[in-house]
Amino acid sequence: MADTPILLREKQYHQIKAVLARLRMDSSARVVFLVDKDGQEIASQGEVGNLDTTSLASLAAGNVAATGGMAALIGEKEFPTLSHEGEKESIHISVIGRLLLVVVFDERSSLGLVKLRSKQVSQQLAAMFEEIVAEDFDNDSPFAEITDEDIDSLFS
Amino acid sequence: MTFINYASREINCKIVYYGPGLCGKTTNLQYIFDSTAPQARGKLISLATETDRTLFFDFMPLELGTVRGFKTRFHLYTVPGQVFYDASRKLILKGVDGVVFVADSQEERMDANIESLYNLEENLQSQGYDLLKLPYVLQLNKRDLGNIIPVEDLASELQRKGEPVIEAVASTGQGVFDTLKAVAKQVLTELRKG
Asked: Which CATH superfamily is domain B3-193 in?
């Protein structure tokens, strides 16, 4: 059996977006996004433009998973933050339970500021995600009535 | 795991292509990528060695259309098939919603198929999944080659639970979309159960 689906309601989505928007402003970052550890993008804020956030989310999760594997091999639980500094653009990733907070920033900001601001919103995001995970379909699943025809139509 | 976003009205599911080295997992993804309209798919990300062997994973997001007002997006992943990349394979199975096992039909790869299938069951278990309860398809690839094992023999050796068995030649696309459809259908049917 696969895991229970995660349901992100509109209200929670907008709450998360608001936290990310504030973080982005406070850290002078280019883009901020929240990803779950399996690589699913939850929300993003900032100058997304042509940035392929879906691929970035998947690679960020792969990156954290790989370094987490290395951590386990040397007896660490995990590495809670990862930073990659480039010539112009840099990425900072914080692991918050099942979430990854990814901040993309350039010379307008600094690693120290991004680290500080990310840490400040970690608890808030973790609490929000707890609520999301507790969400259930509550008999309002739009998928309860999916028919075989609905599914077949995707491939026609 | 399936991620349902009510705000953007999207369903996101994760499908993993598993199988022994050189069985055609990446070729499946490459064919899907090449034959899908650009607006329906994202980039095909390949973390591969210089000799094009998968090092960590391949990844491609694919949008299939709308069900009940929700856009359905499938995140397709492959694992590295070579035996010594087992740590990477385990990581990629996290949060999986459906699995395709790509078997190599050639006689000399039978042992590799069995070993990889056993490895899949073991790695799923270590992540808390049971292959018998997961959406699953068995693809018999390379049916165009000369030294292949008959379908019945492969199925009796590799089939685990009456899952769909699909003959394929991934390099020409034969059976590729049938395989994807078979697994996607099972994943979406799971959603019906809630």
From this structure: P-loop containing nucleotide triphosphate hydrolases (3.40.50.300)
